[in-house]
């Protein structure tokens, strides 16, 4: 990966992937989307979790509209599918991804955040989908991922009326799982990523790849897929060692938070 608007830093078992287009509020150009794809496809084998962050006061203000060219329907379709392929490498890549949200999480930025597995927002965060007022439609997977976070009715309202959610209302709606004070989203995301990196890799893989698919299946199919995944996960040597450590009193018990 070598792109002027994207930085990769490896901190032990955690990869920090940072959008570095702060002067443009980290707006997503086609080149930046492709760099994200390439980065998540080629993370070092030692990485067990990733943090996705944005340089400056904003996580990501969405699609760089200066790149919005006169496209015919076929070209528009292919452009959207390119985004789909790139963000799929975030959601269904090799490791769990924790997003550190702050400032604008707007349009394509919200689509990018929704492809991550955990979202940590600080108190400056705000969410919007201005595509409706600009005569366009979401094209980076937002119509699939965002309703799973907040429901189709809320997303419809945002696009019809231009509604903006602040950090507190956004957490209640389901945009983020964590809400932290201003300036601390990255620290919290890194803390979570380090914790996630200690999990058995096959369990993390199951949570990333099997769980969302089970959620889309009928109950009967979901139960069967769950049983297959449970059998595979518990057969891993790492899992056997962890269970043995717990039974021998060498592993921490779950305690009240």
General description of the model:
It contains ten helices and nine strands. It has helices at 30-41, 73-91, 108-114, 142-150, 152-161, 167-173, 185-196, 201-216, 219-234, 237-247, and strands at 6-11, 14-19, 49-54, 97-101, 104-106, 118-122, 126-128, 165-166, 178-180. α8 (201-216) runs antiparallel to α9 (219-234). The chain is globular.
Highlighted features:
six-stranded mixed sheet, 2 domains, 2-enoyl-CoA Hydratase, Chain A, domain 1, 10 helices, Lyase 2-enoyl-coa Hydratase, Chain  A, domain 2, single chain, 9 strands, alpha/beta, about 260 residues, three-stranded mixed sheet, globular
> What percent strand?
15-25%
Globular, elongated, flat, extended or rod-shaped: what is the shape? globular
The helical percent reads 40-55%
How many strands, what sense, and barrel or not for the largest sheet? 6 strands, mixed
CATH architecture grouping of the largest domain:
Alpha-Beta Complex
Helical run tally: 10
Class derived from helix and strand content: alpha/beta
């Amino acid at each position: 990966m070598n792109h002027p608007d994207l930085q990769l830093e490896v901190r032990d078992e955690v990869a920090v992937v940072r959008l570095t287009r702060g002067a443009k509020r980290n707006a997503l150009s086609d080149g930046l989307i492709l760099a994200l794809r390439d980065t998540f496809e080629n993370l070092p084998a030692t990485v067990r979790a990733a943090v996705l962050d944005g340089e400056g006061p904003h996580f990501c203000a969405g699609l760089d509209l200066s790149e919005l060219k006169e496209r015919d329907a076929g070209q528009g379709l292919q452009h959207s599918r390119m985004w789909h392929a790139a963000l799929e490498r975030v959601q269904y890549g090799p490791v769990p991804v924790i997003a550190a949200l702050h400032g604008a999480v707007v349009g394509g930025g919200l689509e990018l955040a929704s492809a991550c597995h955990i979202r940590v927002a600080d108190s400056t965060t705000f969410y919007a989908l201005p595509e409706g007022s600009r005569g366009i439609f979401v094209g980076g997977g937002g119509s699939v991922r965002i309703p799973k976070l907040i429901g189709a009715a809320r997303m419809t309202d945002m696009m019809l009326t231009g509604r903006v959610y602040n950090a507190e209302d956004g957490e209640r709606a389901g945009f983020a799982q964590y809400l932290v004070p201003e300036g601390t989203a990255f620290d919290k995301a890194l803390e979570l990523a380090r914790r996630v990196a200690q999990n058995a890799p096959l369990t993390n893989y199951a949570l990333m790849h099997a769980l969302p698919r089970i959620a889309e299946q009928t109950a009967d199919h979901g139960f069967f897929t769950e049983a297959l995944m449970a059998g595979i996960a518990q057969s891993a040597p790492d899992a056997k060692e962890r269970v043995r450590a717990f039974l021998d009193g060498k592993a921490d018990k779950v305690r009240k938070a």
